Fold this protein.
Amino acid sequence: MKNILTIIRRELGSLFTSPVAYVFLVIFLVLTGFFTFMIGGFFVRNEADLTSFFFWFPWLFILLVPAVGMRQWAEERRQGTLELLFTMPISVPEAVLGKFLAGWLFLGIALFLTCPIVFTVCYLGDPDAGPIVTGYAGSFLLAGSYLAVSGMTSAFTRNQIVSFITSTVLCLLLVLIGFPPVTDLLLKWGAPTGVLDLSAGLSVFYHFTGMQRGVFDLRDIVYFLSLTALALMITGTVLKNRRG
Amino acid sequence: MIEATSVKKYFGDRPVVAGISFSVARGEVLGFLGPNGAGKSTTMRMITGFLPLSEGSISIGGCDIEENPVEAKRLFGYLPENAPAYQDMSVGGFLQFSAAIRGLSGRAGKAAVERAAGLCHLEGVMRQPIDTLSKGYRHRLCFAQAILHDPPVLILDEPTDGLDPNQKHEMRELIREMGRDKAIIVSTHILEEVEAICTRVIIIDRGTLVFNGTPRELLARAPHGDRVLVILRGIDGEEAVAALEKLPQIRRAEILGEEEGRLTLALQPTGKGEDFAWNIKKMLDERRWEFCELHTESGRLDEVFRDLTAPDGADRKEGVA
């Protein structure tokens, strides 16, 4: 436990001493604002809710979260510090969890910094608190899942670009799997409804939309957490069987 | 402290380490030698638990590195090849992190960091980011990280790489000093280092152990280990060789060079050659031969090393032809 905290502290420290953290935060906040107000048509909708804000997260995160996750292990491999880290008295799960939690915490900070948007909505109208809370919870869980996936691709390579691209594609796949282009294709191939449901059920979008609307369903939370856990477990296995 | 038993490592089908066994006790500094690609670093990475073993077992202080990795890893400090460190951290921050991971926090952590930084002369750069350090500093930083928790076992992969001659000397002193009450493994290409700091030497070549003994035993294998060189003045070469080879102690006399009246001879003793140089001197005095130099050649480690690890001599000659 103490080791996990030590790792978290180091990771956050290294994020905030490098420009990565600040560049990320600025871009993230500018983009969320832009999507919410300009593309999402916040004012045109004339409703005091955050639908046009949360709606973009599955897309925005596809690009931004891998930027945080791609360096996690690839950078350690490239610098050779992986050898240092794994010859110190810590276990692989501790290291994997520590790095993941640090990244997740950072994404949490980024989400927290979007609170002016909530204030704006509260100022303009009288929004329902429920969807805002579940929306933020869902966004945080979603960010965690994407982060775990990009951490996993990062464990496979010493090249951050390769890690970034593969994790972006994987996250995109997690969104698209429930979308009509994919499900229609499955339908055309004559897939039974069970497969169609499964495909839709595996989609990040499906689970996120529920939470974004204020529906608090345990299944959605289990979905996000198990996706995260699976990716972290694969990361651990890959690192345990590394070849240097 | 360190016990390696028939350790094997395959990368795919290719055996990189093909069954190595050795042990290192407290108070020993083991030199780990071998040509590039012989499996030195791979073996070190297996000892430190970074690479999984294909076969065999390694234990450190009684803890098996595969079954009980965290316990075993508490017992050693490791300086990996190329001295990696987190580039974006400061020297002090990196040392504090290393101390915290080893369970040294608060005052104990601070004391450990100060001690290690002092031993490695890092006090002046504690606030500097690591990516601005020179190679020598980075190396010493990584070494400081390894000795931070004063471990009973040290594993050092090329500890003097990138240091200037003074720093090299100092590092060797430090290792020798620590070797009194620790078990240390040092891998190196530098043969003089072996003579300077090691109490025992292991040579591996193509994944197998080809030598395990003291540096003195290694030297004893040198082909010209105990021959005597003399430089004579004003004496004809043929005549000298004929006269010298009559002596019972001399197995062979060889002319190495003859110029401007100076004759250089190499004399090979029969048997072990005790007092060989002394006897020769007496003989030269008796004959009133004038000599301006006479010394016993000590064996050269590089010759032994080449002998033990030469990639099949025949192949090489064919290659040249």
Remarks:
- Residues 313-321 of chain B have pLDDT under 50 and may be disordered.
